[in-house]
C-alpha cells in the first residue's frame, strides 16, 4: 500500500498533520521582529531563518482562537506551496516537538467541526489531527502584502498552474490514498 510520512504538529488546542516534505525545519522560538499595530492578530511579525525574514503566523489565532506562546513553544518553517516568488517559506508557531507518523490507506476521516483554514480531520493513532489548508494560509499573507490589510478574509482565489510535487504530496493526504483517487497521481510520491 502507498504510504507517506506525516508530521503531527502540536498546537495549543489541536494537532495539525502535514506530509513531512512540507516542513523545512524546526527551530527554537524567537521573539518576532517589530511590526505595526495595524496587522491582524494572527500575524506575529518576522523571524530570522537562514538569513531570511520569514512571516510568523499563529494558526490558532487565524482560526479565531487566542494566541498561546507556551514554555515548549517552537517554530516550524514550512515550504510555501503557492509558487509565489515573494513567499518561499512561512513560519508557524507550534507548542512542542512535531512527531513523525506513517500515513496510509488505513487513516479514517473524523466528522468534527473545521475552521476555514482546515480541510479535513483524520484519526492518527489515538489523536484527531486537522489537515491545514496551507494555500489559504499563504493567501492571507499575500492579500496582506498587496493591500496592506486582509481583504476578504479567508476567501483566497484558486492558485493557477500545476501544483508542484510538494503540493501533490499534501493533496495526497486528503484523499488519504483511497483506491478511487489513484488515477494518474500515484507516481508522484515514489521518490
Please trace the helix and strand order, writing H or E for each element. Answer: EEEEEHEEEEEEHH
> What is the helical fraction, as a range of percent?
10-25%
Q: Judging from the principal axes of the Cα atoms, what is the shape?
A: globular
Structural class: alpha+beta
Number of strands: 11
Strand content: 35-45%
* Oligomeric status: single chain
Question: What is the average per-residue confidence, as pLDDT, rounded to a whole number?
Answer: 75
State the end-to-end CA separation. Answer: 15 Å
Low-confidence stretches: 147-170, 175-191
Number of helices: 3
Strand order of the largest sheet: 8-1-2-11-10-9
Kindly summarize this structure in a few lines.
Helix content is 14%, strand content 35%. The protein is α+β, with helices and mostly antiparallel strands.
Amino acid at each position: 500500500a502507498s504510504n507517506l510520512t506525516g508530521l503531527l504538529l502540536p498546537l495549543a488546542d489541536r494537532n495539525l498533520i502535514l506530509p513531512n516534505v512540507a516542513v523545512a525545519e524546526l527551530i527554537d522560538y524567537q521573539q518576532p521582529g517589530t511590526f505595526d499595530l495595524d496587522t491582524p492578530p494572527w500575524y506575529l511579525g518576522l523571524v530570522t531563518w537562514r538569513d531570511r525574514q520569514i512571516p510568523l503566523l499563529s494558526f490558532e489565532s487565524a482560526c479565531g482562537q487566542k494566541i498561546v506562546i507556551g514554555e515548549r513553544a517552537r517554530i516550524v518553517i514550512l515550504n510555501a506551496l503557492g509558487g509565489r516568488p515573494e513567499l518561499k517559506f512561512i513560519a508557524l508557531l507550534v507548542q512542542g516537538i512535531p512527531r513523525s507518523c506513517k500515513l496510509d490507506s488505513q487513516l479514517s476521516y473524523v466528522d468534527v467541526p473545521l475552521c476555514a483554514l482546515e480541510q479535513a480531520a483524520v484519526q492518527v493513532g489515538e489523536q484527531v489531527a486537522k489537515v491545514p489548508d496551507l494555500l489559504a494560509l499563504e493567501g492571507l499573507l499575500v492579500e496582506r502584502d498587496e493591500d496592506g490589510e486582509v481583504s476578504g478574509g479567508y476567501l483566497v482565489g484558486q492558485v493557477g498552474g500545476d501544483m508542484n510535487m510538494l503540493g501533490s504530496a499534501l493533496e495526497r493526504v486528503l484523499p488519504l490514498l483511497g483506491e478511487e483517487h489513484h488515477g494518474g497521481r500515484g507516481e508522484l510520491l515514489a521518490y
